[in-house]
Amino acid sequence: MNCLALTSIAPEIIRELLRGKARTIELQSTPNVITLAGLEPGAVVFMTSENLEDLTPGDTGIIVELLSISVTMKRIMEFTQGLHYEERERMSARVKVRCIGSSTVKNVSQETLIRPISVEVVKSACYHAL
Predict the structure, then answer these.
(1) Which of 96, 99, 101 is nearest to 20 (CA)?
(2) Does 81 fall in a domain?
(3) 128, part of any domain
(4) Mind listing the pLDDT tens digit for each residue in 84-126?
(5) Nearest alpha carbon to residue 44 among 125, 127, 118, 106
(6) How far is 77 from 39, CA to CA, in rounded Å?
(7) pTM of the model
(8) Measuring CA to CA, which of 13, 82, 85, 124 is 20 to 30 A from 23?
């Protein structure tokens, strides 16, 4: 299965999503915001705690369905010694996701830094002995 990847997600968030409930998370990493900016609700993405630069075949993560997406610009004011202030803008994305299942990366492809990273994943199967 080919899908886009969200990287550097905290392991605690991935564990929380594996419990089965839908959760809303806010992402500020530029590669993740770029990935989400081009997607619509209902899309399926791969989430992993691995860094973008370290993502290789064999890495594990989860496949999630996007339930809602909101990409916004936030204004941040920084004060220095009470006399000067600097105004900055930061783009962030809030996304509500629901876990579909665990998966493993089979192949990674990234064209450039300003394009989303695409991965081929294999959905993990779990068998229980009786």
Answers:
(1) 99
(2) yes
(3) no
(4) 777 888 889 999 999 999 999 999 987 667 788 889 898 877 6
(5) 118
(6) 30
(7) 0.82
(8) 124
